[in-house]
Amino acid sequence: MSNIVIEKIVLADGSLNSDLVEKAIGAWPDAKIFNESELEWPTESESIEDLIGIGKKTLYLAPNKGKFVRKCPGTMGLVCCNYWVIDLVEGCVIDCSYCILQDYLTDKRIRLATNIDELARQVDFELSQCNGPARFGTGELSDSLMFEPELGLGSMLIEMFRHKPMASLELKTKTGFIDSILELNPAKNIVLGWSLNTPQVAMTEEMGSASIEQRIKAASEAARAGWKVAFHFDPLVVHDDWENGYKEVVEQLFSNVPREKVAWISLGAFRYQSSLKPIIRSRFSGSKVLNQEFVLCPDNKYRYVKPVRRMLFKAVLEHIRSISPSTPAYLCMEGIEMWRYVLGSSPAGQKMLCEIFS
Question: Which one is the CATH code of 64-90+115-357: 3.30.540.10, 3.80.30.30, 3.40.640.10, 3.40.50.150?
Answer without folding.
Answer: 3.80.30.30
